[in-house]
Amino acid sequence: MSLTDHLIVAPIILPAFVAAFVVLALRENLAAQRIVSFTATAALAALGVYLFALASDGETRPYLLGNWPAPFGIILVLDRLSALMVLLTSVLALVVVAYASGGWDAKGKHFHALFQFQLMGIMGAFLTGDAFNLFVFFEVMLIASYGLMLHGGGPARLKAGFHYVAINLVGSTLFLFAVGLIYATTGTLNMADIARRSAEVAAGDVALLRVGALLLFLVFALKSSLAPLHWWLPTTYGAASAPAVAIFAIMTKVGAYSIIRMNAMVFGGDAGPVAFVAEPWIIPAALVTLVIGALGVLATRRLVDLVAFSVVWSMGSLLIALGLFDVAGLTAALYYAVHSTVAAAVLFLIADMVTRRRGVAGDNLRTAPPIANDALISGLFFVAAIAMAGLPPFSGFIGKLLILDAARASAYGPWIWALVLVTSLVVVVGFARAGSTMFWKAQAVGGGLVAAAPPPEREYDTPRHETAAMRAAVYALLAVAALLVLFAGPVTDALEATARQILDPAGYVAAVFDPAVIPEWSR
After folding, report:
1. Residue 522 clears pLDDT 60, i.e. is over it
2. Is 342:399 a contact under the CB 8 Å cutoff?
């Protein structure tokens, strides 16, 4: 194994060491924390690019921690899907840490340490090759997110934080029950080993294995805000600080990724009596998610809540495509996952910029005097909103076309077409109403800029000062959305190859148990 092969574990180790270093050595030095955190996240993004390029040859690369062979040791697996998610997370993290360094990280202690621990958990969840370590990395990710959720303090965050912690503790308990049942029936928690043993489970254990697989799906559905388990997301995202909620945009995708990994590959077509066990539930629940998210966008009275409900709506779209479990559906789901992560993150950051300028009006959707730089901010909001809503020529439109095209042959096809199109119109109306209230009607109110008489800044408020790095972070995310349109052809081709690899569990199993990667001492 060459030195470069060891880079597969680097996306987990790097943020883990940086987080510990920040806590132990830089606790009282915020300027140094910013430099170290940004530099490390930039290195993580470079690693993401390298691993994505490495995985683009289509080879699945297992990495044996401790040099113990599968299924006995801890294993990481780099394939096209995990490399894509590592790259997406690292790019998003780089933008978010730049935005947070503009002042949000000074609103509480340990932002950068928690941020790096969260990256460690997310990267581990994407790279791990066994179900128990998926649980471990979920816990690392969630524990860090509890701290980030409460960053800045304030009564609203504290209340939402208690709900967030409580619902995730329930999810973690179910996760443990699920892996226990799977281990009891298959004798293994290695994903490749589960995939090859599922078809051979004794007839008396099939029901238990199905329960374990469905419990696991329930946990991932909770994390991906699939209805009726979506209710925590608008409350949590609506209360969190801007950089925290921007990085949370990837966390719903961790749930979607886990559904793909466990239900399309581990319990995929070769899993015998548990093949595609969650398939009957996904599309109907995703359609309900779509409707609830769109109605929330229309009904809400706060800008951040509106963006949060649009995330719920976008997850409905993503999970519809995912639930088709074919190449076209998974290709559409992966494209939409990248698009919706970028669109949601930039909308949360723009909402923060709007809130900063509106003074006492905050992000409430009511008329207020014009804000500073209203032409620029309204333009940014307009572009991000139509990208999220799926209007041409932005990436959301291409994602919607891919989903609708993939759904043509599905039995749910008429429902998918009707609800995707109708709810898209509802979301457009919701964003148009918000933009009209905040920017257009503000000109009729007059009275000078709100910033002329700002109220005292409280600890948990949006920072009053806005830096060039914060504006650059927003521009960078919009540029990523534009690149998704400009290079839609090559991106779609790469995602189609990823979908084909996902639907080939035999290739994944063969790679993990390849004699060439088994240590000589154990042969």
Report:
1. no
2. no
Q: Is 446 left (phi over 0), alpha (psi -120 to 50) or beta?
A: left
Strand intervals (E) in 12-110: 61-65, 74-78
Q: How far, CA to CA in Å, does 440 sit from each of 58, 177, 195, 235, 434?
A: 50, 53, 56, 28, 10
Beta bridge mates, 62: 77
Cα–Cα dist 423/431, whole Å: 12
- Structure pTM? 0.94
Q: Are 128 and 76 in contact (CB under 8 A)?
A: yes
Q: Give the residue from 39, 21, 168 showing the smallest Cα distance to 94.
A: 39
3-state class (DSSP) for residue 74: strand
SS (H, E, C) 275-326: CCCCHHHHHHHHHHHHHHHHHHHHHCCEHHHHHHHHHHHHHHHHHHHHCCCC
Contacts of residue 21, Cβ cutoff 8 Å, sequence gap at least 6: 36
Count the Cβ atoms, other than its own, within 10 Å of residue 242: 25
Contact between 121 and 13 under an 8 Å Cβ cutoff? The reply is: no
**Dist CA 435 CA 432 (whole Å):** 5
Residue (of 101, 73, 80, 77) closest to 12 by Cα position: 77
Mean pLDDT for the stretch of residues 10-25: 96
Closest listed residue to residue 91, CA positions, set 494, 516, 445, 481: 481
Beta strands in 252-336 (DSSP E): none
Contact between 150 and 239 (Cβ < 8 Å): no
Q: Rounded to whole angstroms, how far apart are CA atoms 32 and 25?
A: 10
Which one, of 110, 107, 102, lies nearest residue 154 by Cα? Answer: 107
- How confident is the model over 159-215, as pLDDT tens digits? 889 899 999 999 999 999 999 999 999 999 999 999 989 888 888 899 999 999 999
Amino acid identity for residue 300 in this structure: T
Torsion of CA 119, 504, 500, 477, to 10 degrees: 0
Stretch (H or E) spanning 328? helix 327-357
Q: Counting Cβ atoms within 10 Å, is residue 85 exposed (0-12), middle (13-18) or buried (19+)?
A: buried
Q: Which two tokens stand for residue 481?
A: 């959305």
